[in-house]
């Protein structure tokens, strides 16, 4: 009622948003979260020039979505909200703190197929790529943007192929920049897998992307999700290119075959990891030179072990 009575007063809206932070953390607030979301977004729209209100509003929206997720409540934000968030990104495109919050919000809502479709409709991809280029150093922004790209590209709905192709060098730059950070690397590998699956890589990107994915595997073999996605991305590249296959076995930092062996021995009890390793091996055996290398490195022993432990593989 207070917010409705003083829509046009920025300070009143800011105070109300601060007051609501404590309220939404209370479990009894659960039935009212959607209503609160509507009031917050309306306040943010009304005072779009107020950077503080945008930051506080986005922080509160993140809190609401986190609470809903914790309680297994689906929070479907409509196209108007996603469009408004994109408008916020464009209006405050230089503010790193706000962009970090908005990109995290976009990643959280893009997990919903409906929300992902809304994001496609409002044309979010060029904005994501622009943000990544401008804030490549920011781990949170890179993590979130790669997550959104994955959600948008993985859908069966048609996405502008040219746009997705332009995402490849930016995603590779993220991976290169944050190779030490397992969480960001995992997100970038997921995005690269989907982009390669959608046929978005050009021929001159096959070899350097293969090398990058091998680096990611070497540095983060302990992360099962990263191993799964890196194996699938590598499988997509090997399916397309013998050059990728040769780089895979002759990389100057060590053969990819050794990475596969190490990955299996670390994650032999994870059927999904093993399955994705098998997908990669299946692509490797189409090239004679790779098969020779596999034989010289006694790969058949690993295959026998997989067959024994996973008869259906």
From TrEMBL:
<dbReference type="InterPro" id="IPR011989">
    <property type="entry name" value="ARM-like"/>
</dbReference>
<keyword id="KW-0723">Serine/threonine-protein kinase</keyword>
<dbReference type="GO" id="GO:0005524">
    <property type="term" value="F:ATP binding"/>
</dbReference>
<dbReference type="InterPro" id="IPR016024">
    <property type="entry name" value="ARM-type_fold"/>
</dbReference>
<protein>
    <recommendedName>
        <fullName>Serine/threonine kinase-like domain-containing protein STKLD1</fullName>
        <ecNumber>2.7.11.1</ecNumber>
    </recommendedName>
</protein>
<keyword id="KW-0067">ATP-binding</keyword>
<keyword id="KW-0808">Transferase</keyword>
<dbReference type="GO" id="GO:0004674">
    <property type="term" value="F:protein serine/threonine kinase activity"/>
</dbReference>
<keyword id="KW-0418">Kinase</keyword>
<keyword id="KW-0547">Nucleotide-binding</keyword>
């Amino acid at each position: 009622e207070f917010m409705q009575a003083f829509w046009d007063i920025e300070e009143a809206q800011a105070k109300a948003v601060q007051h609501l932070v404590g309220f939404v953390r209370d479990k009894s607030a659960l039935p009212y979260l959607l209503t609160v979301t509507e009031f917050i977004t309306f306040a943010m729209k009304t005072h779009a020039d107020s950077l503080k209100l945008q930051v506080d509003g986005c922080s509160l929206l993140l809190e609401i979505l986190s609470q809903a997720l914790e309680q297994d409540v689906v929070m479907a934000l409509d196209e108007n909200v996603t469009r408004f968030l994109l408008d916020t990104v464009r209006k405050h495109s230089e503010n790193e703190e706000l962009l970090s919050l908005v990109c995290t919000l976009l990643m959280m809502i893009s997990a919903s197929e409906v929300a992902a479709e809304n994001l496609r409709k409002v044309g979010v991809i060029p904005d994501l790529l622009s943000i990544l280029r401008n804030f490549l150093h920011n781990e949170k922004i890179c993590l979130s943007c790669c997550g959104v790209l994955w959600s948008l590209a993985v859908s069966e709905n048609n996405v502008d192929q040219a746009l997705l192709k332009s995402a490849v060098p930016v995603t590779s730059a993220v991976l290169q920049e944050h190779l030490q950070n397992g969480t960001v690397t995992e997100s970038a590998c997921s995005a690269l897998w989907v982009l390669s699956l959608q046929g978005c890589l050009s021929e001159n990107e096959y070899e350097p992307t293969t090398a990058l994915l091998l680096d990611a595997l070497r540095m983060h073999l302990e992360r099962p999700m990263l191993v799964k996605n890196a194996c699938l991305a590598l499988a997509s590249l090997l399916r397309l290119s013998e050059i990728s296959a040769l780089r895979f076995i002759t990389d100057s930092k060590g053969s990819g075959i050794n990475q596969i062996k190490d990955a299996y021995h670390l994650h032999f009890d994870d059927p999904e990891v093993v399955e994705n390793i098998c997908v990669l091996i299946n692509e490797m055996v189409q090239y004679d030179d790779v098969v020779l290398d596999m034989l010289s490195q006694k790969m058949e022993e690993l295959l026998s072990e997989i067959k024994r432990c996973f008869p259906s593989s």
